[in-house]
Write a structure and sequence with these properties.
Helices cover 61% and strands 4% of the residues. It is mainly alpha-helical. The chain folds into two domains: 1-31; 34-108, Winged helix-like DNA-binding domain superfamily/Winged helix DNA-binding domain (Arc Repressor Mutant, subunit A, Orthogonal Bundle), CATH 1.10.10. It has a two-stranded antiparallel sheet with strand order 1-2. α3 crosses α5 (82-94) and α5 (82-94) packs across α6 (96-108). It is elongated and about 55 Å long.
């Protein structure tokens, strides 16, 4: 059986959540692009931001580190969706050193 047919067979048995996780893994494996994260030198100094917004990932990560619950983050940033936070946490896991450096730089400023 070829690999694509095997994947198709497995997909039919997966929950929507498992499929979403698989999709994120595939996107990450293809390259450094992360769903919902935009890096543009003209926006926020090139810091990774949530797509459609000017909210840097480091801001969300720092809020979470300080104990802010996801529901409160979403209330404070009405343009955010729950999936944006999932994307931010995934980006942080993959680029923890970068985000921690951005937090330090912005707290020292």
């Amino acid at each position: 059986m070829n690999a694509l047919r095997e994947v198709e067979r497995l997909l039919s048995k997966m929950t929507p959540g498992e499929k979403a996780q698989l999709l994120q893994w595939v996107v990450q494996d293809i390259g450094e692009n992360f769903l919902g994260i935009d890096i543009n030198s003209d926006i926020c100094g090139g810091d990774p931001c949530i797509i459609r917004t000017r909210i840097p990932v480091w801001v969300l990560v720092r809020a979470r580190q300080l104990g802010t619950k996801e529901a409160e983050i979403l209330r404070c940033y009405p343009s955010l969706r729950a999936e944006d936070l999932v994307n931010a946490w995934a980006y942080y896991r993959a680029h923890q050193d970068q985000i921690e450096q951005q937090i330090r730089e912005n707290e020292e400023a």
